[in-house]
Specification:
alpha+beta
Length: 116
């Protein structure tokens, strides 16, 4: 099935962790499709993955930590510097209510405090 093949390919490519694979595999079995819930931000299509837009009242905006211009560095411990743009979305999305850990580097116009 296409969803399982996509998951296996992401695992092979090292763009999702084993934990994420198992979580999404479970969702696929229960719902017949891969999860589609995002985090409420738009990023550039190529590395560095700069934040272009925050969805009002979305999960990322609600943290009050991320600003437009910040750079997404890693997701669930996987560094994104070698992850192609077309796969980054698949790394971030998950079942609604699931937790994703993202690390950002502050944009040029920020305080210079570094990554968070």
């Amino acid at each position: 099935e296409a969803g399982m093949a996509q998951l296996q390919l992401m695992m092979q490519d090292g763009v999702i962790t084993q934990e994420t694979f198992l979580q999404r595999q479970d969702h696929l079995k229960k719902h017949g499709k891969l999860p589609e819930a995002g985090v409420g931000m738009v990023i550039t299509e190529r590395t560095p993955y700069k934040v272009l837009q925050l969805v009002p009242n979305g999960p990322v905006e609600k943290t009050k930590l991320v600003q437009i211009g910040d750079v997404l560095v890693s997701v669930d411990g996987i560094k994104l510097d070698r992850v192609p743009g077309d796969k980054v979305r698949h790394v971030i999305i998950g079942p609604e209510g699931s937790i994703v850990t993202m690390q950002f580097a502050e944009g040029v116009k920020r305080s210079g405090a570094g990554a968070y």
